[in-house]
């Protein structure tokens, strides 16, 4: 089978399969269950919600 | 675990058997590789900017540097594209992605030396490719011009970096995923698929006829939409909340935006071939998918706007926020312009004009590059543990590039539309249309010079920051490095 067939087969079958698997895994792992908490992931105890972290120019420097 | 969100990062929380690392520890682990990606990327940015200026001048003064054949327009323009795409944008993307992935996974970067070695080889690949283009070895395939002998080095070194990003993800201490991680993981998987497929179908076992054009535009359009765009959006979703200290407006909308981008973007490339000798259904599907892109674009725009609501004034104080918000707004504008340009009635006028060039710069520069500048303003002080030396250079950088890109995109979009209207009018001679564009092309050179001023200011500030790294540590007037800086100072 020529290389191009593998590529087309991969693009048509494999990629949607991977996408579906990722969606299924995410659902099963509860990734979509607590959106409010997921939105807090960039924050932690040292830089919690409410703490601004980059205000360095003019005005009220932190 | 989902329930762990907001728990401490001070090394006291176990999640999935892996201990969460402190932010300062994560930043320190990323120092060498991320710095290396940024510095080499900025080196290519300066080279690419100079090539762009030469190419721009040649458009209205063709005799400029005419004595050097290797600096002919075709070589210089192609070398510019490849240096900024593969040299600058891709390397900075990888640096930002690695840092974001480590921060969100709450682990230090594993084996940073390995990534640094991969980066060395990647730069070797870009150097070989750009020199090859200037020697006249270009493949003449849009966005894939690097000669065949350069691409294996690029592909293997990139694959190593991508694998390492996934390894970092697999070792994560925080089990729950933030939306930025979805975008980053997708981007590192999409790019090798795009690049590998296009290499095989266009260079190794070339397809025939118009299918070449179809594959070419599928690749070129998706590099922007499935490689740079996800990394740009991942950065926006992380940095806006971090800077203003407020979570994103709607996590649901952010997830909807990701999955709709994944579903629709891949189909878009064929709208560049409106009027071409391809089956009508291929182009029609592409136009429909382009219009469907309104879903992710509008969801992202709403989410970013409502997150920022009441905080826009902070752009005066935060360089990161200033660049990121400029980029986020430009993402919406570039996408809307892209949707409009995909329509047959518009494409019939704007295709083959400078309108397309303006659109590419609106997406690649006003959106993506501005977001990457913002990300570097946030990351560099943290990984070097030094403050930005000059606020004046930050302002010069922002205003240089902001004014430059506005002066580039707005007139070029308008000129392209007028140019297309004239080209479609059989009573107007082609030479008259060319002469009509000349004043606008001179304005484009002025805009390019403003961009270069901004780039030089940024690189100067980064160089100054690096010099400070080698000075004896002094306790800073705490501005950015709040908690971590004081801790480190006390420990010395």
Keywords:
heterodimer; A: 62 residues; mainly alpha; 2 helices; elongated; B: 492 residues; Four Helix Bundle (Hemerythrin (Met), subunit A); Cytochrome C Oxidase, Chain A; 2 domains; two-stranded antiparallel ribbon; 74% helix; globular
Give the arrangement of secondary structure elements.
The complex is a heterodimer of chains A (62) and B (492).
Chain A: H1 3-28, H2 35-38
Chain B: E1 14-15, E2 18-19, H1 23-60, H2 73-105, H3 112-135, H4 151-170, H5 179-204, H6 210-244, H7 251-264, H8 280-292, H9 294-308, H10 319-342, H11 344-350, H12 354-384, H13 391-423, H14 430-469, H15 482-491
Antiparallel strand pairs in B: 1-2
Helix pairs in contact in B: 1-2, 1-3, 1-12, 1-14, 2-3, 2-4, 2-6, 2-12, 3-4, 4-5, 5-6, 5-7, 6-7, 6-10, 6-12, 7-9, 8-10, 9-10, 10-12, 10-13, 12-13, 13-14
How does this model look, in words?
Chain A has 62 residues and is mainly α. Chain A has a domain at 3-38. In chain A, 48% of the residues lie in helices and 0% in strands. Chain A is built from 2 helices and no strands. Chain B is mainly alpha-helical. Chain B has 2 domains: 16-176, Four Helix Bundle (Hemerythrin (Met), subunit A) (Up-down Bundle); 237-492, Cytochrome C Oxidase, Chain A. Chain B has 15 helices and 2 strands. In chain B, strands 1-2 form a two-stranded antiparallel sheet. In chain B, β1 and β2 form a beta hairpin. In chain B, α1 runs antiparallel to α2 (73-105), α1 packs antiparallel against α12 (354-384) and α12 (354-384) packs antiparallel against α13. At the A-B interface, α1 and α2 of A face α5, α6, α7, α10 and α13 of B.
Structural domain count of chain B = 2
Given as residue ranges, the uncertain stretches of chain A (5+ residues, pLDDT < 50) are none
Q: Rough shape of chain B?
A: globular
Given the structure, what is the number of helices of chain A?
2
In terms of per-residue confidence, which ranges of chain B show pLDDT below 50 for 5 or more consecutive residues? 1-14, 482-492
Shape call of chain A: elongated
The number of helical segments of chain B is 15
Neighbour order of strands in the largest sheet of chain B? 1-2
**Helix percentage of chain B:** over 70%
